[in-house]
Specification:
heterodimer; A: mainly alpha; 6 helices; B: mainly alpha; F1FO ATP Synthase
């Protein structure tokens, strides 16, 4: 993105500068193996997930410690979510969905730490995650149901003349799914951080009245914490809903 | 005062500004979803807890279309040419 080409103005607002990917150890050249700030912060969120689950399950106490109860909340929440939407059959996919949920919630929340880099604000990450879900579900649907998977495009409860039209709409909406699935997460993360940055730019120019943008930043930051958690939840629950098509295409 | 600059960029920036009006549609959609959920939940609070997940799915679908307009604005601002 051409961030450097933005015009200079009285307000030094560069809301997109925080999303620039830079090599971690200096230098300009970037290849696929270069460690960047993206690599660092993805690693941080992965390590946090692993630490939470390893330390949380080490004791296996009857009366859980604080970390163990947090790990149990994550486990129980994901388990109940899959069971509610997909039934017992969906629990085979528990590892995939639990991985998505814990990684996203940690990546989103770690991104809110000042000076941290938000990995999920890049379409490269979210599109990859959404495509993995999309491909899994499409392949699984055909392997599990054969040609019967195509029933999700042919709505048998609708009147017969309407069905071809609905089929076209259903096919389009099926292929838009990975787009909306990924862009929703990336857009929410990027927009929130850009808003905070814009308010921070106001604060520098207003002198003593900087108190107003500061209060606004606090409010937006609180909203962003909620959005970070809700978007991880929404991404996961939509994965469950899409998975339901592969498991029960007739419904 | 002479006006200088790139006409294409002007058009792109105006288009990006216009694209933000899509946000209003998302706001109306999310408001409708949550408002209807709340009015239903207050009539029958015992059934409300089971429908929270459905509400979030509804919010996500309504919001996605608003995010698309944001995406169009971003593309116009940074990915032209």
């Amino acid at each position: 993105m051409a961030v450097e080409e933005q015009a200079e103005s009285a307000f030094n607002i560069f809301p997109m500068d925080q999303f620039v990917i830079r090599p971690l150890f200096g230098g300009d050249s970037m290849t696929w193996y270069t460690p960047t700030n993206m690599t660092l912060w993805m690693g941080v969120s992965l390590v946090l997930v692993i630490l939470l689950l390893v330390i949380g399950t080490r004791g296996r106490a009857m009366v859980p410690t604080r970390i163990q109860s947090i790990a149990e909340i994550f486990y129980g929440f994901t388990y109940k979510m899959i069971e509610d939407i997909n039934g017992k059959e969906g629990l085979k996919f528990f590892p995939h969905i639990m991985t998505l949920f814990t990684f996203l919630i940690f990546a989103n929340v770690v991104g809110l730490v000042p000076y941290a880099f938000t990995t999920t604000s890049h379409a490269a990450i979210t599109v990859f995650l959404a495509l993995s879900v999309f491909l899994t579900i499409t392949i699984l649907g055909f392997v599990k149901n054969g040609a019967g998977f195509l029933k999700i495009f042919w709505i048998s409860s609708a009147p017969l003349p309407l069905r071809p039209i609905l089929a076209i709409i259903e096919v389009i909406s099926y292929f838009v799914r990975p787009v909306s699935h990924s862009i929703r997460l990336m857009g929410n993360m990027m927009a929130g951080h850009a808003v905070i940055q814009v308010f921070a730019g106001f604060a520098g120019a207003l002198g003593v009245f900087a108190i107003f943008p500061v209060v606004a930043i606090m409010a937006v930051y609180g909203l962003e914490v909620i959005v970070a958690i809700i978007q991880a939840y929404v991404f996961t629950i939509l994965t469950c809903v899409y998975l339901n098509d592969a498991l029960h295409p007739g419904h | 005062m002479a006006v200088t600059g790139d006409l294409v960029q002007m058009g792109a920036l105006i288009g990006a500004g216009l694209a933000t009006t899509g946000m209003g549609g998302a706001a109306v959609g999310v408001g409708l979803v949550v408002g209807n959920y709340l009015s239903g939940a207050l009539r029958n609070p015992s059934a409300a807890a089971g429908q929270t997940a459905t509400m979030f799915i509804g919010i996500a679908f309504a919001e996605a279309l608003g995010i698309f307009s944001f995406l169009v604005a971003l593309l116009l601002m940074y990915a032209q040419g």
